Recover the amino acids of this structure.
């Protein structure tokens, strides 16, 4: 079945460590996104990529990094520079029709907890 | 800039009650409007959408009408079920903003049997 797979689902990290969250899609979508969700808040855009080997910062990119070496993959690294990394992270991709409407498909999320 | 405002939750209803979750927006252009649903521990799923004024989106018994005059996109369902318990997000995308999605803060719905 086509979809977006995020891993791991749960991750614990000590302060000062970098961690990488995986996002893989087999939907053949060009555009991919990373959002951060905090309790009781909406989603905030971290980074997005419209095409392979290209990506742009979103509203809260500080302390995060991404790469887009393959169309299917858009990993997010949460670096030690991110001051409040504990959150739920959501990866999304946009279908071709979504270029006009903005519609996105989401993965099931990764919950990162910093100890 | 663009923004979406939703009623704060949680909204607690009994099964078979009528549901309304209010959503209003501010946009510079002519946005498309969406409702996404997030079940516990999961990502977001598109529930319904409307791409122009007076359009009605509907799915799984939920409806929302794009009201340009009141800049609103309220979500309604005539008879909720326990399985509808989730967080609901209103969102818009605007061509003038590169079709990036802007989300509201989410409204948690709890349905009791």
């Amino acid at each position: 079945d086509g979809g977006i797979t995020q891993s791991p689902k749960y991750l614990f990290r000590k302060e000062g460590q970098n961690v990488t969250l995986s996002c893989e899609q087999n939907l053949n979508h060009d555009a991919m996104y990373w959002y951060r969700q905090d309790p009781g808040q909406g989603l905030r855009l971290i980074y997005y990529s419209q095409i392979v080997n290209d990506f742009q910062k979103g509203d809260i990119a500080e302390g995060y990094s991404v790469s887009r070496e393959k169309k299917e993959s858009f990993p997010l690294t949460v670096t030690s520079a991110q001051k409040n990394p504990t959150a739920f992270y959501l990866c999304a991709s946009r279908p071709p029709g979504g270029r006009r409407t903005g519609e996105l498909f989401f993965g099931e999320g990764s919950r990162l907890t910093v100890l | 800039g663009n923004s979406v405002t939703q009623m704060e939750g949680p909204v607690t209803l009994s099964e078979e009650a009528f549901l309304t979750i209010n959503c209003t927006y501010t946009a510079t252009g002519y946005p498309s409007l969406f409702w996404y649903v997030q079940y516990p521990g999961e990502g977001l799923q598109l529930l319904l959408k409307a791409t122009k004024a007076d359009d009605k989106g509907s799915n799984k018994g939920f409806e929302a009408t794009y009201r340009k005059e009141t800049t609103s996109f309220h979500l309604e369902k005539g008879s909720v079920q326990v399985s509808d318990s989730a967080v609901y997000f209103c969102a818009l995308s605007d061509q003038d903003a590169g079709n990036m999605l802007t989300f509201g803060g989410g409204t948690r719905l709890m349905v009791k049997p």
In short: Chain B touches chain A through 24 residues (CB under 8 Å).
